[in-house]
Amino acid sequence: MVSTVAKSSGMPGNGQFKIGIDTGGTYTDAVVYCPTTETVVAKAKVSTTHGDLGICVTHALTEILTNGAVPPEHICLVSVSTTLATNALVEGGGRPAGLVAIGLEETVTARRGLDHLLPANPILRVAGGHSPHGLEVDSLDLALLNDWLLLHDSRVEAYAVVGSFSVRNPEHEIITAEAIAEWTGKSVTLSHELSGQLDAPKRAVTALLNARLVPLIHELIAAVERSMVGLKIACPLMVMRGDGSLVSSDFVKAKPIETILSGPAASATGAAALNSITEGVVVDIGGTTTDVATITGGLPASAPSGARIGGHETMVNAVRVHTEGIGGDSHIQPTPLDDKAISIGPRRVTPLVIACSERPEVQVMLEDQINRSVARESDGIYLWLLEHDWATQSTGEATIIAALQASSVGRAYEDVVSSGLERNALNRLIGLGIVGMTAFTPTDAAHVLGVDKRYPAEPAGLGSILLARQLDRFGKPLASDGSLFAELVLKLVSAGIAETILTAAADHDGLPVAHLNSALKAQTHAATRPGSRKFLDVTAEISGAVTAVGAPAVLHQDQLGLKLGTECIVPEHSEVANAYGAATGVIRLVKETVVSAPRRGLFRVHAGEPSNYYDLKQAQAFAEQDAAAALGLGMAAAGSGEFVISHDWEIHEALVETRQLFVEAVLKSVAVGSPV
Description:
By secondary structure, the chain is an alpha/beta fold. Among the domains are: about 95-210, Rossmann fold, CATH 3.40.50; about 330-490, no CATH class; about 585-675, no CATH class. The protein has a 6-stranded antiparallel beta sheet with strand order 1-29-30-26-27-28, covered by helices on one side. It has a 6-stranded mixed beta sheet with strand order 4-3-2-5-10-11. Strands 12, 13, 14, 17, 24 and 25 form a 6-stranded mixed beta sheet that branches. The chain is globular and about 85 Å long.
């Protein structure tokens, strides 16, 4: 491995503090960080305003600047992590974009799920493309391009271009992109700039999704920049990518897809930094989900084949995260027909303790239901309208909307839903954000037990009693009182989180999940089998400490330690680990260069236009020089000051008749540096 040091030009920072912001699905967190003392000066957590992210960002920035007594002119950097791209892909969002496929037949572009994207995103297939060795196999034919653009440009906001073997020679992609940009003036994504892998259909999916995200990321960055201007914060703006590294806001505008899993990456890097670890397992327990990642060499482990989000396979280098729909605000429901007496999540609802502080009618409902002699499955659930102008799409939706419109403050579930059809309609309305819902959650359980004291605990106590008297599949109450039910809830939440941690560790170690599940079943069976004398000890434990972050982490710290057979550490400032990760992140760019062998004795370096050499060492030297130059430009664009570049070669050979023959060599060049 070879290392070089380089320095890019750029304006120095104008202060001594950094700000990290995380725009999550539920809350937006912010911290002021002092690099000199490595301390958090101020932190804030505000509700995310999805309609206008600028509102919550401004609120969070105002709060931390005020609380930390930090003048705006002393801020030298603002860094943001975001779930915007991830949520857009999961929810099928993004803006319409057009795709031009060069040298790829219809059977090829139907792979990797690309065909599912095409009905809403027009595609043009043109002749052209190159061979695996970078030679042109067919002339580029753009005769149909202008007519296609004229037909579709009014309804798309960006474009993507993918060419056959463009990673070995990008000439046709570049010519096509220049023609589109000249005709439309819109953003064009080139597939070879997002990934160096050969899989053209997968590159096409990645490029098209990137094009669909460009307008969304532009809006987010513009919102943050407006907030900074309004507060007189004049410094560079950085964005965290899905691999846990930072890039400038201008850099990510062209490659927004690289921000998928930005939130989990920020929490993983933040957790590792808060606990000062370079190897281990980190878990982020949020309001809606729990994310688990492994840390190797101080960095979050990446998904080897690229991130998979919302059913889409991409070539984006992103954190390898295991997500479970368990969090502090997960809906707790009795499930009398299942082996497990209660279910936890994946739906997020407003905890009773929070809802009652905003809607006194909820507590009135709880008190009325407590006084009834017969328990009902719908006990403890309250609904209200969030969107009053919703155009209903079924009779079930119409019935629910009409029932909720009859009361300005909301109504009990039992007064709104009376059939399975209406229940399904309600689930859809909740998922769309049309109807709000409160019910018992792990946050309520923590208030019952006194381990969380942010809100008055009486509503949680009433809710726990209502659920405790629900019956299991044997006709017995779930618990004898509310406190025991709350204990059961927190134990089950801890068990679910622990199982997710074990799954992530098994995945990291290359152990099939099916094998782990068998061991866990054996462990459970052995623990519940009568008799004290056992010759077999079946345990699944984590070697090394587990770092837990997120607001609910302290509630499960002890239980996780017991279940995982290790120490569970909740570091200071764990509730804003995502924002801390954004504030303390570094810039890291990776470039791969391939040297192929079209014939014996000829070595072709695929860096831009292919270059031929008759000596492998000369080919390798040129590849390293080209990679260093490209990374130098990239690091400057990404916003780095001084940085270090390292090169690592992987040589592939084949054994032919007792002789080792060169097949190809792959150079991985990595640049790491700090933001200016």
